[in-house]
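Exam revision sheet. Question 4 asks you to relate a sequence to its structure. Input first:
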Amino acid sequence: GLAESILSASLSILGKQVLHIDRNDYYGGRLASFRFPDLVQVLDGKKQAVTSIHEGSVPAVVSPSKLQLGSNPYSPVIHSSSHWFVSAQSNGTTSSLSQSVQPPVSSLPLVLTEDANVSPMVSEPPGVPVSDGDEPCSVVPSASVPTVPESTSWTRDRVEQRLCRVDIDLSPRIVYAHSPTVTALLRSDVTRYLEFRFVSRCLAYTVLPATTQQNTSNEPVISESVRPNESASLFQIPVGRGELFKTRLLTLRQKRALGSFFEWCFHLELDSDAAPTTNAAQQDSLFLAYADRPFREFLHEQNRLDEFTQELVITNLALGCEDITTREAVRRIHRLLASMNRFGPYPILWPMYGCGDLPQAYCR
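Answer key, structure tokens:
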């Protein structure tokens, strides 16, 4: 796992000799990343183990010369069930995709260094239907993705070939540019074994309030009740003041209110327990009053944000649910804003080949 890998790397830095023993043939434990064929093998292995237990088979005797790691091998999968809803072969049509297709790269890999300046390396990801509010959804083109001829029907072989493009994380983790995780990677020089990509957009599948679509006055009135349109769309959520005033998702008054909240949250000095420091506590008594109350109440009563903007902030920026407290939500948003422009224009990093690369790099 990741914790054991970090511990072994720390001991190695201190000059100790470390022996890695793992019952699995992959890194990461519960944090592992798989290609689809490898994931299928893990699922099939779990099915065979369950079948053997139900049939009452006796496990093989381990030789005394081998290290006994326990009676049952560890598996990240507790229950396994799978079924294909497409046929194995098509009627005379074959897919033109190769089994060795690599994942499409929308931006160059990023190697983390303290003085990294990688903004020219960022490019837009492959085409995705996105709308920013007033305009209908459009497809963002990407010149780096070649056009692949489509076969006439979906088959099992075609699905498996497409899935070879992706890495599947068992437990996806967000890596903020300003976080203890990145600090540990830099101090231990583990970054030489890793490549990162920026998460260049925060998207939400949601509906717009009627006021955003229909009101065209210079100073739109924000309604507390959200009257959604008939259909939802995929929208880009602004992160930070730079993106905030470029988006058409929010009205001018919504932008001003949310921008003031961003400014306050960014300059709030928090310790590791998400509590204001001594100077900040004297200046932000309102935060202390709402610290253990629902975050939605703080946004509504102190920041005058309407329901639609509250939902965007809670769900997409704080990554929380309805009952998240102000203390926890402010800590998350503060970390998000503090991660802007550290290695580039985006606050979130993603390991090139999945989160399973983190324990693998520490083990090296």
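Marking note for examiners. The chain is about 35% helix and 5% strand.
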